[in-house]
Structures are given as C-alpha cells and as structure tokens.
Design brief:
Elements lengths: L1 H24 L8 H22 L7 H24 L2 H4 L2 E4 L6 E3 L14 H6 L8 H4 L3
Antiparallel strand pairs: 1-2
Length: 142
C-alpha cells in the first residue's frame, strides 16, 4: 500500500516538476512541453524505489547500514529517473516515434524556422543533438 502511494505521489509531482523544467527549456528545444510527459513517466518509478529503500530498515539496523542503503537507494532511483526520462529526450528535438524494434527514433523533418536557436541556448541545442544555426554575430563580415 505504501509503494502504491509512492507511485501516486510520483504521478502527482512528476507533471509539476516537468512543467517547471519545460518552462526552462522553452526556446532551447522545439518541443519543451514533451518534457512534462517524461517526468510523469519517470517520477513514479523513482518514488517507488525511494519509498522501498526508506521503509526497508527498522530500528535494529546500525546507522552505517541505513546510510549505505540510503545512498544506494538514491543512486538507483536517480539512475532510473534518468533512464526513463532519457527515453523522451529525442522527442524534445522533434522525433516522431520509435522504429519497429522499439529502439531507434526517427527524426521529423525540420525547417529553418523550427530550429532557430534562442539567444544563450546554443549549448542546450548542441547537447540534445539539434542542429544549431550559425551565430549571426560571428557570421557578420567586418
């Protein structure tokens, strides 16, 4: 019952965290609001792991073992959060789906208007694999 509640908590807070992060991604990627779906999918998984780790020890456990369990639980939860949300990264730059094997994203056609980088967001576009247009300041001839 506790783990079901943890999943529900993740399902409630995932979209809220995703909304805040999507707002920060606005202008850096063509589809920032898809990040809300990524967080909605990832946070329930992470919260179940966190609650599983938090409810496992009892009063008889030595402090050091509780600390180790906490560190391992945090690492596993963070790793799963990254893996699940990472599946959605290609969709932020315009991917349309997965191939028949479920492994490779097909990129959507892009237009010059669809990939224009916002000022100060060039690094995010490069990190996400989106085409980055030339910097207008650097391309001016003097």
């Amino acid at each position: 019952l506790v783990l079901l509640g943890a999943a529900g908590l993740g399902l409630a807070m995932g979209p809220l965290l995703g909304l805040a992060q999507a707002a920060a991604l606005h202008g850096a990627v063509p589809h920032p609001w898809r990040w809300v779906a990524a967080n909605t999918a990832a946070w329930p998984v992470a919260m179940v792991v966190i609650f599983l780790g938090a409810t496992s020890p009892d009063a008889s456990w030595p402090v050091w073992s509780v600390l180790v369990l906490g560190a391992v639980t945090g690492g596993v939860a963070g790793g799963l959060l990254g893996v699940v949300s990472g599946w959605f990264l290609p969709s932020l730059t315009g991917a349309t789906g997965v191939d028949r094997n479920g492994r490779h994203w097909r990129t959507a056609p892009r237009t010059a208007e669809g990939v224009a980088a916002a000022p100060g967001r060039r690094g995010a576009r490069q990190a996400l694999g989106a085409p980055v247009p030339p910097d207008p300041v650097e391309s001016r001839s003097t």
